[in-house]
């Protein structure tokens, strides 16, 4: 991995990227916001590791929007009656459209957000869906050997974890408890609600994060 900490921490500076970042920092908790930002940084590192080139193979601004907004459905700004991935995708599409993004690009981000919990689907859909999901997965510590300890430490120093996995599950379970339509059968929300009710801690997310490279 050739990326250095300074390069790895750089965020896009376009007007749209600034609007997206401002929204996330305003409506998401620190744990969720930092997770979203780290997901982008890890997604870009994964793209580099995979040999993908910005502009030629993927759009950095769209990757930033998809990663930053992938959990916007866990905020009060987008907490509707649908599963959080879809509520979030809908909110992201509305926001990006309001800020002038063309329809095809909005649709691409919608798909990346809506599919980000769908293992084996997102990875095979297109580059944006794949890199978005891989950035999120990498923030849980999976398959991160190609990232140097120096770069990983720099990212976490700038954007601390704040018990991220527990914070995410807390919100998902709270939303699903209040609105059962948000936890359709076999969805992540339904599984988290079931396991939290039966065991008190989810194996898939919380326990896995605790023993992962980055921790919870």
UniProtKB/TrEMBL annotation:
Signal peptide: none annotated. Pfam families: HD (PF01966). SUPFAM superfamilies: HD-domain/PDEase-like. Residues 28-121 form the HD/PDEase domain. This is HD domain-containing protein. The lineage of its organism: Bacteria, Bacillati, Actinomycetota, Actinomycetes, Mycobacteriales.
């Amino acid at each position: 991995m050739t990326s250095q900490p300074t390069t790895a921490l750089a965020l896009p500076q376009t007007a749209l990227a600034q609007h997206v970042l401002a929204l996330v920092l305003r409506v998401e908790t620190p744990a969720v916001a930092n997770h979203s930002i780290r997901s982008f940084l890890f997604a870009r590192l994964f793209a580099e590791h995979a040999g993908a080139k910005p502009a030629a193979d993927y759009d950095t601004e769209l990757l930033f929007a998809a990663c930053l907004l992938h959990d916007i459905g866990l905020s009060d700004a987008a907490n509707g009656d649908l599963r959080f991935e879809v509520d979030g995708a809908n909110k992201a599409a509305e926001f990006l459209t309001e800020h002038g993004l063309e329809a095809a690009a909005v649709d691409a981000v919608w798909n990346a957000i809506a599919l980000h919990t769908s293992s084996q689907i997102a990875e095979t859909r297109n580059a944006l869906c794949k890199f978005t999901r891989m950035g999120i997965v990498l923030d849980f510590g999976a398959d991160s050997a190609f990232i140097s300890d120096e770069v990983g430490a720099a990212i976490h120093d700038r954007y601390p974890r704040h018990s991220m996995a527990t914070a995410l599950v807390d919100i998902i379970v709270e939303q699903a408890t209040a609105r059962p339509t948000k936890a359709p059968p076999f969805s992540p929300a339904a599984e988290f609600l079931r396991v939290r009710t039966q065991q008190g801690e989810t194996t898939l997310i919380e326990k896995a994060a605790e023993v992962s490279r980055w921790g919870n």
